[in-house]
Specification:
By secondary structure, this protein is of the alpha/beta class. The protein has a single domain (about 15-240), classed as UDP N-Acetylglucosamine Acyltransferase, domain 1 (3 Solenoid), CATH 2.160.10. Helix content is about 15%, strand content about 30%. It has 4 helices and 25 strands. The chain has helices spanning about 5-10, 15-25, 30-40, 45-55; strands at about 65, 70, 75-80, 85, 90, 95-100, 105-110, 115, 120-125, 125-130, 135, 140-145, 145-150, 155, 160, 165, 180, 185-190, 195, 200, 205, 210, 215-220, 225-230, 235-240. The strands form 4 sheets. Strands 2-5-8-11-14-19-22-24-25 form a 9-stranded mixed sheet. The chain has a 7-stranded parallel sheet with strand order 1-4-7-10-13-18-21, with no helix packed on it. It has a 7-stranded parallel sheet with strand order 3-6-9-12-15-20-23. Strand 24 (about 225-230) and strand 25 (about 235-240) form a beta hairpin.
Length: about 250
């Protein structure tokens, strides 16, 4: 089992205590009550009434929240006191903002859009989504260190950003119990574009204005303005004619 599985399935502690740690971390009892009431009463309200009530009630849960947030039905929020939202943030139905650990955080800046059923998961790490980012549906952005996504980045549907690998050492012990190989997180520069079903591995930097073609697997850095495709990804062009293409992401 993973460390989190061991913690949450430990029968020596109550189910309520495990749920509370998962939902609100170390927050006060009052915060926990407000969190539960907000989820129960407003979390799945449809239409205009649902959007309006969530935009009024949910900001009290977050560490900070800008003007006019729009949260769809069934949005899952865990440990919201460690999540910050800017102005005009749009989070579609069924999306998840999932913080794990007192040392983790999610920061979503102004006018960010997060698509339906996408997950932003910071597990003892930090995630920042820059102004005007657009995250497509069914994406997963997760880290145990950091993910920094720059201004106006476009991420297509079904992308996976930031996965780490188990070390694979330690014969005789299950892979799931072996430590993760953490390489420092992912950075995606401003105005970059990731096509559908792209995977960006931990430790990778995607340069500003770069394009990553659909279904690509990126395990090495991508220069500014480069166009990369493939598994593993390699440079096939440039969005800047005078860029000398002497580097390859392969």
């Amino acid at each position: 089992m993973t460390p989190q599985q061991k913690e949450l399935t430990d029968t020596k502690s109550s189910g309520l205590a495990a749920y509370r740690r998962l939902a609100v971390g170390g927050a006060s009892t009052w915060h926990f009550i407000v969190y539960e009431a907000a989820q129960l009463l407003f979390g799945n309200l449809p239409g205009l009434i649902g959007f309006a009530t969530r935009s009024l009630v949910y900001p009290f849960l977050f560490k900070s929240c800008g003007r006019r947030p729009a949260l769809g039905r069934g949005v899952l929020v865990r440990i919201p006191r460690q999540i910050s939202l800017g102005n005009g943030v749009l989070i579609d139905d069924g999306a998840s903002l999932d913080v794990r650990g007192d040392d983790a955080s999610i920061t979503i800046k102004d006018r960010v859009s997060i698509g339906r059923l996408s997950t932003i998961a910071a597990k003892h790490g930090h995630i920042t989504l820059g102004d005007g980012c657009n995250i497509g549906s069914y994406c997963r952005i997760a880290t145990q260190s950091r993910v920094e996504i720059g201004e106006s980045v476009l991420i297509g549907a079904y992308c996976y950003v930031g996965p780490g690998n188990h070390t694979g050492g330690g014969e005789g012990s299950p892979l799931i119990e072996q430590p993760m190989d953490i390489k420092g997180g992912v950075s995606i520069g401003a105005h970059a574009w990731l096509g559908a079903r792209v995977t960006i591995m931990d430790g990778v930097r995607i340069g500003a204005h770069a394009v990553v073609g659909a279904h690509s697997f990126v395990k090495d850095d991508v220069p500014d303005y480069a166009v990369v495709v493939g598994t593993p990804a390699r440079i096939v062009g440039s969005r800047k004619p005078n860029l000398v293409q002497t580097q390859h992401a392969q």
